[in-house]
Amino acid sequence: MTSMSSSTRPLLNRRLAEFGTTIFAEMSALAVTTGAINLGQGFPDTDGPEEVREAAVRALRDGRGNQYPPGPGVPELRAAVAEHQFRRYGLSYDPDTEVLVTAGATEAIAAALLGLLEPGDEVVALEPYYDSYAACIAMAGGTRVPVTLRPHEGAFRLDLDELRDAVTDRTRLLLLNTPHNPTGTVLTREELAAIAELAVERDLLVVTDEVYEHLVFDGAEHIPLATFPGMRERTVSISSAGKTFSFTGWKVGWVTAAPALLTAVRTAKQYLTYVASGPFQYAVAEALALPESYFTAYRADMEAKRDLLAAGLAEAGFGVHRPTGTYFVTTDIRPLGERDGIAFCRSLPERAGVVAVPNAVFYDHRDAGAPFVRFAFCKRTPVMEEAVRRLKTLAG
Asked: pLDDT 10s digit of each residue in the chain, 396 long?
């Protein structure tokens, strides 16, 4: 019998060979071992609204969702998602045929790409991109084509000409993330209109990751791409409850799309988790119906924390790219005399007692991302103040 170790074929599927342990796992483990403040992984250190948590407890006690929920999601949540899309954006979706509940946005992205791509299809994505995008494109057999957001006047900007040039006859879809993680860029109405025109002209599908839709600052506006002419029938819109309501462990996401697109996504999704998060789906349905005052207060709180962290990072000597959305600040470490973000982040817990994430891991063009480091500000204000105090020691 031939031993496994003598086989010339690697155990890991070759499509996943470039993907090891995620940077979030590595940096969070580093935070634990060093006792550093974890501003790396993007999860809050407090729970969301008490009434939403109690809604989950009530569902558990009432026996709602303790067994398999319906494959597309519980009717109450699908109706709440449809109402949210209509109330906020004027987008009308049928809860029965155009809304799908997923195990967070991460599964929604995976299901969309697995359901819509075939081997050899090209996917144009904005670089730097959230790490699951690259892995999901690879698992689907697609080829990723990055279009790099580049720093300009304190923010990261999309070059629309570069985007157009990236589209070829093999391009199947565009994968967009706005508000954009990790850079904090929010695409403007003009940029989105140009993207919509390109998608219609080249007959492209678009998958949009909009999980930070409620976290836009400085008067910016989140505008779903599906609202533009010709886009509703070709756009798969994705969002989730984790970032908006600070219950990231519940893993409740959703997809809205025209029936044919949704069927493709659901066909893949049903063989991933089938269903998930039963009782939490009922709670999220109630969360989506919270009054506007909740969303306004949440946004204002995050904006204040952004300002606190951004000012502290600037005083510590970082170059700061002030985000217009999300709950991350991207910094440039070159003013500190550093150039390698990965090495910098691995040494930062010992040097300053803070954990961050190197943006280079979100790039195919690693050199383009090498000097950039991301910090999360979705933590309690006293924690943020202590992190800022520690980081200022880098300035000498």
From this structure: 455 555 688 999 999 998 887 888 888 899 999 999 999 988 899 999 999 999 999 999 999 999 999 999 999 999 999 999 999 999 999 999 999 999 999 999 999 999 999 999 999 999 999 889 999 999 999 999 999 999 998 899 999 999 999 999 999 999 999 999 999 999 999 999 999 999 999 999 999 999 999 999 999 999 999 999 999 999 999 999 999 999 999 999 999 999 999 999 999 999 999 999 999 999 999 999 999 999 999 999 999 999 999 999 999 999 999 999 999 999 999 999 999 999 999 999 999 999 999 999 999 999 999 999 999 999 999 999 999 999 999 987
Rounded Cα distance, 96 and 324, in Å: 34
> Could you give the dihedral angle defined by the CA atoms of residues 61, 62, 66 and 71, in that order, rounded to the nearest 10 degrees?
-150
DSSP string spanning 306-322? HHHHHHHHHHTT-EEE-
| Residue 72, φ and ψ in degrees, nearest 5 | -75, -10
Separation CA 35–CA 101 (nearest Å): 37
On the 0-12 / 13-18 / 19+ scale of CB atoms within 10 A, 314 is middle
**8 Å CB contact between 337 and 2:** no
Characterize the bridge pairing of strands 235-240 and 205-209: parallel
Sign of CA dihedral 27, 33, 38, 41: positive
The number of angstroms, rounded, from the C-alpha of 179 to the middle of its chain's C-alpha atoms is: 9
